[in-house]
Amino acid sequence: MSKTITVIPGDGIGPEVTDATLTVLGAAGADLEYDMRLGGVSALEQVGNPLPDETLDSIRANRIVLKGPLTTPSGTGFRSINVAIRKEFDLYANVRPVRTIVPGGRYEGIDLVLIRENTEGLYVGVEHYIGMEGDPRAAAESVMIITRFGAERISRYAFDYAQKHGRKKVTLAHKANILKYTQGLFLEVAHEVAMRYPAIVWEDRIIDATAMQLVLDPYRFDVLVMENMFGDILSDLMAGLVGGLGFAPAGNIGDEGAMFEAVHGSAPDIAGQGIANPTSLLLSACMLLDHVDQSGTADRIRAAVNRVVQSGEVRTVDMGGGATTREYTDALLRALA
Ligand code: NAD
Question: Which of 67, 87, 92, 123 is an active site residue?
Answer without folding.
Answer: 123
